Amino acid sequence: QIESSPGPPALLARSPPPVLARMRLDPWAAARAVPDATPRRPLERVPLGASTTPETPEADLGTKHSKTPRDRDLALPARNPLSPRGCQGCQTINVTPPPPPSPALAPAPPPPPPPASCCLATPTVRPHDLAERGTSSSQRSVAPPPCDEAPLERALHRLTLHEPCAALRVVIKPAAAGGGVEVAISPRMAEAGPAALVSSAHLARSALVYEEGGSSGHHYPGGSHPEQPARATALWAELCAEGLAGAALRVPARLATEDEICLVHERSHWRRLEEVVRLEASELRRWCEQQDSLYLNGAGSLTAARLACGSLLALTEEVMAGRARNGLAVVRPPGHHAERHRAMGFCVINSVAAAAAHARAALGARRVLVVDWDIHHGNGIQHIFEEDGSVLYASLHRYGHGFYPGTGGAHAVGEGAGRGFSLNIPWSSAGYGDAEYAAAFERLLMPVAREFAPDLVLVAAGFDAAARDPLGGMEVSPAGYAYMTAQLRSLAAGRLVVALEGGYNLRSISSSAAAVMRVLLGDDPPPLPPAPPCRSAARDILEASR
Question: Choosing from 128, 202, 336, 337, which is the catalytic residue?
């Protein structure tokens, strides 16, 4: 029993079990520590806006005109020692309620609030759901999640309260009594409805879409490849191990229809894909060699691409309908390079572009913001909406020196009715990290996005700008991705859909995606150390702002 009358909640009678003790540790500590085995030259940092002089850009770290890794650092992620698996989180917690105060004694003054560093200063527990939503009962039950995904204590850890602690009592029922969590609220909160206990952002929960083994049919037929099925499975395993998958609404995956795909692709592109996946293996291999950084291995590749697109559309539908507040799509293959008329750059179907078009055509969105933080420019998304003023495309990517795909200069701002609705922030050098991305968001991207006032925000979330990625050559940490997600969460009344694009180091994409999911679930991002951007990044941002 966790009670507070009237001060902050306190665990009574005995010290908490090991799981609760671990919860009180900094959950971001492991995510922040992403060691980089590749030493890099320190970047000279200057305040943004200071005078800069041209300098020779650093040599490209990737293979010219190709998305080929520098190394094969694609190991499976190690389990976070702070993240318990199995059922050890569902143990019984024996606590004793405090004795009632003596009526002869005057009520004591409330204790002073705890310091900001105290784990009880701001309660951060969220149940997986509130049953009988909308009733005026003063007591509601919350069923526990599956033990292998989110232990009971983790479920409590993720409830965000919006009322004084004195109005809440949480009781963890032992397994012998049926298990579960019982949330008792005051009559005043009951009269105000469930929104008084949990904000609408948590009544409409964050959502996840992932199909177990759905992308396994799309794999490189000639051996190892950075764009592999393990990207999705490792990411999903991390979300389950951290208790994040069990805290979100699970959206069923589905296949995209031909009409949905042709919202952003030519019919000829769809028919060509249907034809080539039926070719013999040798003929299909020769056809792929004539394309631009593309592989297919038969009908399984097309099915995986349709599943990735359809799953993202299903998640977007849930968010636009208000059944989910925001969401993360763990899908592959990526899609942001795919043009209207062809597949390229590991991408078969442009799922994020299809989601934006679907939201405009069928879901009531008037303006859609697409933010692409993949290290490669999303040429397909920009070209599809280049003449459309209802979709603002903003991309942060490496540019020049033969870096793939070679598009996305600061001068590319759209055409016709879409002129001014493409915002490219091209990075001229490698080695940029949290300070550079935060400066680009604060000084340029977010002011433009607020003025655009979107009804929906879509993120082409490639994690290949993360530290240790074999293609990106950048240094963004999980905390940096959490910061960018929190910034975008403030737009469009919180309607934010994040879709996996690139990212080829399994440790990096797993920890980075978990950091994003924590923010989607309502956690605050960890603070970034104050630091100005490096000199070349400051020049890049100023050039893009012109």
Answer: 337
